Amino acid sequence: MDTIAETIPTNKLKANVPILSFRAAFEPSTIDSEKRSVVVRWSTGAKVLRGGFFTEPFHEELSLHNESVRMDRLRSGAPLLNSHASQHLSDQIGVVEDAWLQDGAGYARVRFSGRQDAGPIFQDVKDGIVRNVSVGYRVYKYKDVSQEGDPVKTLRAVDWEPMEISLVPIGADAGANIRSFDRLRTESEKENVNECEIEVRAQTKRIEESMMHIDIETIKKETLEAERKRISEITTLVRKFNLDEAFSASLIDQTVSVEEARSQILNKLAERTEKEGNIRNHVDVHVTRDEADTRRSGMIESLLHRYDPKTNKISEKGTPYIGMSLLRLAEEVLVRNHISIRGLTKSDIAQRAFLSTSDFPAVLANVANKTLRQAYELAPQTFRPFVRQVFLPDFKEVSRIQLSEAPKLEKVNQSGEFKYGVLSDAAEKYSLGTFGKIIAINRQVVINDDLEAFTRIPALHGRAAADLESDLVYAVFMANAVLADGIPLFHATHTNLGTPGAISEVTLGEGRKLMRRQSGLQRGRDKQLLNIQARYLIVPAALETLAQKQLAAIIPNSSTEVNPFSGLYTLIAEPRLDDHSATAWYLAADPAQIDTIEIAYLQGQAGVYTENRQGFEIDGLEIKARLDCAVKAIDHRGLLKNAG
């Protein structure tokens, strides 16, 4: 006698109704070679143990009464698929011509396509090579048929619908009860099933009370985090002991706990040790790793080539992946790592590629890092010639000592003693600062094949890092900050301010004289002139043309007089200076002769540096672009300003 059941509409569960699959077999005697058709048995309704997303484990039975099975879809030309794949039209290899229920089983006659790619599959069916089929179905209503005292309840599907029939390589077990559980896409992508109901035995009060206290979104988030952690730990353990990726995928698909996975890994290691006699086959490991490295390199090449074909050439390694979308590359990675993609949605494929393997995140991260670094290195930076680059071991404040010139040598009389000289010094202090940004590559990027998201955007961040360095350097000129001696960088006391005037033979001559007349820190009779030679003429963009004329071989407005400044200075035009003054210009010495401005990086990390990690707040990959940098004027004597 059936028990009283409680009804819950599926739209209140905030989860997708699942499509399931059931392994069955061909009826060999029914093959019709001329019509390219065969009869398959697609269900016997056997009992199977299941576990839902929010439910406890239960036994499932399929009712094969006519009133329980919705046969319209099968009888209306449902597809015959290759291993449940449904991403492309080529995945359909035939059609269901008829379907019926008979003697407690479900049958269908399927006809194979006449396409060239379907021919070999039909031939394998005729030859008995391919013998198994699998039906995908959706359950709309269950009835609780458990007996009192059963440790696990039994639910009978009394309203369900076969959706498609597939040829599969894995055969049925003796009870024909092998089924796979695949999640549907969102309701907007599939048929509306809000009118469907699931019957389960329960007390109304208990359900209402539990639903009041359950935060579904919190549970989903916590469950997803737990699943990510489980997959990550199992994958790490399997790779640590050099076990096959297929074994890792098997543990993940079985939804075993990490503890159970450890136990199975130990058993696997024991089997391998016994089989190999404690001898590791290093050659096989190396070959596999080389193949994986080659595959990753090829994928990286293909994506970089898509981003910028002129700069990034493609070799033989990348040829197989030309034109592949990001989702197609994700499928390739999963298949190569022996992870089945049968029945997975686009979202599932993207998420599994991020979580189940390290290859796919490594490919995307490598491409993003290279485009970021490439853009950083190609960004124009005019300050490099007159700035000294140094590295600091940490973020502590450092002192840059300005040593004076050496004291004059004194004559030593016969049997006389050498006298000690004294060096004066001054110090400029600064410390490193950190600048950065995080770039996210999520599963939406992969599904949408959004190449811009992890090539163009990282490239913009790379350019931004280079621009930041330029901003910091030229801010030294424009801010005219106070140095350690309490005087601004450009000041009359420092004798590095020229008489205001446009760039000309007169003003250039004065500037050259002031720099040559700069003296050391010693005073009195030990004072010495440094004879600093200006090397660079630095101007805003507004003065670039005028500066070019003043440095030309022939003096403007005169074809007979030689220009004394021709070839003497290297011209540097910087548009950032225009924002401060369109008339001011500067002279700078070679940093090899005297300190000018210093740009410092953290030891071992010159320029922009990137780090990658699996996303925590997002489903995907996070790339952090970081710049540990500082800029400081060290010595005023190697720089001169003219306000124009």
Word description of this protein:
The chain has 644 residues and is an alpha+beta fold. Among the domains are: 6-214, no CATH class; 430-642, no CATH class. 30% of the residues lie in helices and 26% in strands. The chain contains 15 helices and 23 strands. The strands form 5 sheets. The chain has a 7-stranded mixed β-barrel with strand order 2-3-8-7-6-10-9. Strand 7 and strand 8 form a beta hairpin. Helix 4 runs antiparallel to helix 5 and helix 8 (326-336) crosses helix 9 (346-356). The longest helix is centred in the middle third of the chain and has 26 residues, at 282-307. The radius of gyration is 38 Å and the shape is elongated. The model is unreliable at 1-19, 171-214 and 277-289 (pLDDT under 50).
Give a brief description.
This protein has helices spanning 72-75, 119-126, 204-213, 216-240, 245-253, 258-276, 282-307, 326-336, 346-356, 359-378, 443-447, 451-454, 456-479, 505-516, 544-550, and strands at 6-9, 19-32, 37-43, 48-51, 57-62, 79-82, 92-102, 105-112, 132-144, 154-168, 179-182, 197-200, 387-392, 398-403, 425-430, 433-442, 534-539, 570-573, 585-589, 597-602, 609-614, 620-633, 639-642.
